[in-house]
Amino acid sequence: MIGGLLGGVVLFGVGVLKSWNGPLPEAPGMPAAAAVTVPDGPQVGLFSVPDRFARGDSLSDVLVRNGLPHREVGSVSAALTAVANVRRLKVGQTIWLHRDERGHLARIELPLDDFREVAVLRTGTAWDAHEFSREPLDRREVVQGEVDSSLYQSLVAAGERPDLAGRIARALEYDIDFHRDTRAGDSYSAVVDKLYDDAGEWKGYGDLHAVRYINAGRSIHAFRFELPTGESGYYDYEGNSIQRAFLMSPVEYTRISGVFTSRRLHPIHRVYRPHYGVDYVAPLGTPVRSTADGVVTDAGNRGPNGIMVTLRHAGGYMTKYLHLSRLPPEIRAGRRVSQRDVIGFVGSTGVSTGPHLDYRLYRHGKPLNPRTHILPPGPPIPAEHLPVFEAWRDELVGSFEQPARRAPARTPVTVVGGTEGS
Question: Is the pTM value of this prediction over 0.85?
């Protein structure tokens, strides 16, 4: 009996290792021979062996490769599909297959991410799937540094993950353009939750609670605060909403080649005429974002302006995006778009000397300088909640003064009608 079982496990292992690259991970919460109770069945010993999805593998391929009869593959797939999107499985993703003492598959586990997994369990002649999740361990920490060439490079050099740079830039994007306004010697401090698994391994970031960025001597703050209604956002030092109706820039770019002016020498026609936009130089095909919520009023090839999109916004505002290379299929007249939606891609269509975006802002038909026009902010924190916000803000500011040390855990403060913070 034992010899037959070991032989079956060895043969099974050979099939697994054909697609295996790298060391075997540990089973996700079950030792190699753990006793579990199978519903409607006896106590059995499970032997766990992992496999990985190779390029071109489907779930059925992996199951058949590991000895599941063809007649049961459909049942397992149907059970798993009911609780997880199996079409998004990635090359290299691990799947755990647990066999009973007779060598038959009795349980299949598929980790979805660091904190969630799906288990498919044999129940008699059928298979049932359940999703399990566990709460990550979060530690509030302070991340600080000085910018040499960019915020991204500074954070990565300090051992942080690239996505933190994006989150900091997103929190402050209404007050600073990180593609143009950063300077060597700028400094930053951020209070962020870091997520750890049960083994103490760092898995990623949780909430970004606060950021202080000092740009050319100017201090810019963003504090995350949750209102009793459940709505949360970032606010400045005084409790004013940082979010604006419009983004500072519709595109990531390397430099500005043309500024807003009433008199400019046209680079092609060589005559002086107004230039009521800002030219952002960017690589061909760079995504162009809507700077505000709005409705597409016009989209298509418009002669000297090239492929262009025009959006209508609340408050009498209008934006135009010129010289695009192409448009997403859904961008057409009458389409509603949200702030940050991709509405086109940088090009050089129409009268143009090279790939760039000519971005224009109007109100009631009057052209405005997008770089200097003061746009309306979002609503501030209501007066009745300001004391709670100010206490939370002061605690976070105190954390900024603790260089590279973990910030203390915060005791939630109760607000009438809800709980402050997150």
Answer: no
